[in-house]
């Protein structure tokens, strides 16, 4: 996977209606599976501050079983 020069802006929030949120889902449904996976990998890499070639430090992750 190629690295891109995107930055995740964590300080911006946008209030939106349910209709606008539904349009956001429609936007991603129109993308190919490869484009969706690349976007998800990019977001995960930004959240955990890793690169595609490094691994996530699992000492900082939490596992729990959901009841239900």
Verbal overview:
This protein has 68 residues and is mainly alpha-helical. It has a domain of 34 residues. Helices cover 41% and strands 0% of the residues. The protein is built from two helices and no strands. It is extended, with a radius of gyration of 15 Å. The N and C termini lie far apart (37 Å). The mean pLDDT is 79.
User: How many β-strands, per DSSP?
Assistant: 0
In percent terms, what proportion of residues is strand?
under 5%
Estimate the mean pLDDT confidence. Answer: 79
Whole-number radius of gyration? 15 Å
Helix count, DSSP H or I runs of 4 or more residues = 2
Given as residue ranges, the uncertain stretches (5+ residues, pLDDT < 50) are: none
Large-scale geometry: extended
Q: How many strands, what sense, and barrel or not for the largest sheet?
A: none
- Order of secondary-structure elements: HH
N→C terminal distance? 37 Å
Q: Helical residue percent?
A: 40-55%
| Structural class estimated from helices and strands | mainly alpha
Strand and helix map with partners:
Blueprint: H1 18-29, H2 33-48
Summarize the structure.
The protein has two helices and no strands. With 68 residues, the protein is mainly α.
Key words describing this protein structure:
single chain, 68 residues, mainly alpha, 41% helix
């Amino acid at each position: 996977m190629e690295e891109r020069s995107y930055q995740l802006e964590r300080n911006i929030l946008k209030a939106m209606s349910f209709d606008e949120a539904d349009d956001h889902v429609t936007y991603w449904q129109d993308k190919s599976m490869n484009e969706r996976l690349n976007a998800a990998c990019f977001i995960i890499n930004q959240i955990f501050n890793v690169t595609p070639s490094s691994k996530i430090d699992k000492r900082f992750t939490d596992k729990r079983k959901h009841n239900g």
